[in-house]
Automatic annotation (TrEMBL):
Coiled coil: none annotated. It comes from Hwangdonia lutea. GO terms for biological process: DNA-templated transcription initiation. Keywords: DNA-binding, Sigma factor, Transcription, Transcription regulation. InterPro entries: RNA_pol_sigma-70-like, RNA_pol_sigma-70_dom, RNA_pol_sigma_r2, RNA_pol_sigma_r3/r4-like, WH-like_DNA-bd_sf. NCBIfam families: sigma70-ECF. PANTHER family: RNA POLYMERASE ECF-TYPE SIGMA FACTO, RNA POLYMERASE SIGMA FACTOR HI_1459-RELATED. GO terms for molecular function: DNA binding; sigma factor activity. This is Sigma-70 family RNA polymerase sigma factor.
Amino acid sequence: MEQHFVDALKINDEAVIKTLYYDNRDAFLGFSKTFNIDACDALDIYQEAFLAIRKHAISGKLYHINSSFKTYLFGIGKHLIYKKLKEYAKKQPYNPQLHKEQTDYDEIIIEPTNNLTPQQELLQHYFKQLGESCQQMLTLSFFRGLTNDEIATLKGYDSEAVVRSQKSRCLKTLKNLIKSPLNHD
């Protein structure tokens, strides 16, 4: 890395730091657009990356770096962008209209086909023997792919712990139905 940049960051040379900050900012913000990240978040990420590179300079970590200042800064920024994208994915709220989900249970009709394995036929048979609430719970979770929090919101439960416990009870019931030797005669 450019030695004079590392030294300027380490000794707090405000003129050089200000130049480095503004010379790289627009390029980084343009780079962040390729990740479809919010502009305000991109600016926050740039500032966080710049502070991180400054801390690395102060601690002496940058004296052995072979890349340029800009490459190192963008590397830190890219890591922070990926972290932010993971946060975005976790924060996507469940929207019933978006998923065309109704507050009432949509019955799923499984058409019998000759393509089912014996295990799938067994599962289908005993799934139909479960109560309606268990069928709904397992369908929302495993067929629709909703999280416990989304199911709790959709069904009006107090917390995702209630969903987790009911789902566990339903799975146990289904397993017991399938495993029971009396049911296979």
